[in-house]
Specification:
332 residues; Rossmann fold; 2 domains
């Protein structure tokens, strides 16, 4: 059974309710039809009856709950809560009402905040900033987490590296140039995400163009320091660095370049030194290695809300809905 099939099976075992606010996009309806047919989650679509009939024509979404912000009896409570949460930032009732009635991403996040949904998936036609802004304003960060970061689940076909071809790549979607402290926290969060989503032990490689001092540069120093901090914060975690990619995932190379390392040659969580490296890396593996790439998935938010690439397919949305549902299981 492949990674996403295992995720779907887990999602079905304890079904959660996921909000899809991008009801102006046909991919949302195609994905919703598949999710409802397979039974991986209960769905809420945010929009007016007229909008959803127009954009969802031809798709069977009869099993979804349709919530129209302009007609819902809960909208007033959402407006009041948003004013309360953002009072120190000067949020007025009029501004909150404008957001609730016209910005479905804000409405979806408020549904999660108020316990009317377990998670949200967005980003097919909105930027990462648009998706995360309401999350950070309304949901805030998860207790004990210093920052919100992003990762991709990579499922590489016919691959005996990683966890039978499954890896987490972090941060490959959000944090541009993390300092050592942030990089260490990204590593720990990524390990927790790997454990939660695969049920397997995370083995974390702090990636660099250098392995154990083979090159000297400030960029290498950053990864070395991040590795030190991460080991202090999570001493029981299998984590090592700095490691080149081949030393991290190829056993014979790892043994040659980093003998004695508990991680080298066996890593399944790859922590990239910056967003350029992470983003390029995941797209190379996706396009050239024919891998399934799910994300950017977020970690560190107080409830599961996940971003999508604007180039995503309906199948990608379906997969991320299942992943979000499984993440929600650990919050309940």
């Amino acid at each position: 059974m492949g990674f996403i099939d295992e995720i779907k099976a887990r999602a079905k075992s304890d079904k959660k309710t996921i909000v899809l606010p991008e009801t102006e996009d046909a991919r949302t309806y195609q994905a919703a039809e598949a999710v409802l047919k397979e039974g991986t989650a209960d769905l809420i679509l945010v929009g007016s009856k007229e909008e959803i009939e127009k954009y969802g024509k031809g798709y069977d979404i009869s099993g979804a709950m349709i919530v129209d912000p302009a007609a819902s009896e809960k909208t007033e409570a959402y407006i009041a809560k948003l004013v309360e949460l953002r009072a120190k930032k000067g949020m007025t009732e009029e501004q909150a009402k404008e957001l609730m009635l016209n910005n479905y991403l804000y409405y979806g996040v408020m549904m999660v905040k108020m316990g009317d949904a377990d998670g949200m998936v967005s980003g097919a036609c909105h930027s990462t900033a648009d998706t995360l802004r309401p999350c950070l304003q309304i949901l805030k960060t998860k207790p004990g987490t210093k920052l919100v970061s992003a990762f991709f689940i990579m499922a590489v076909p016919d691959c005996d590296m990683g966890a039978d071809g499954t890896f987490i790549f972090g941060d490959a979607g959000l944090e541009q140039n993390p300092d050592p402290d942030k990089l260490a926290n990204i590593a720990i969060s990524s390990a927790e995400s790997f454990q939660a989503l695969t049920g397997k032990e995370p083995i974390v490689a702090m990636l660099s163009h250098s392995t154990k001092g083979s090159a000297k540069h400030a960029d290498v120093d950053k990864v070395v320091e991040a590795t030190r901090i991460a080991k202090e914060l999570a001493p029981d975690l299998k984590l090592d660095g700095e490691l080149q990619l081949d030393a991290a995932i190829v056993p014979e190379v790892g043994e040659s370049k980093a003998p004695g390392s508990p991680v080298a040659g066996h890593a399944n969580v790859l922590v990239f030194p910056d967003l350029d490296a992470g983003n390029i890396g995941y797209k190379l593996v996706q396009r050239l290695g024919k891998a399934e790439a799910y994300g950017p998935l977020t970690q560190g938010i107080a409830a599961p809300v996940n971003d999508l690439s604007r180039g995503c397919s309906a199948s990608d949305i379906e997969g991320v809905v299942a992943i979000t549902a499984v993440q929600a299981q650990s919050f309940s």
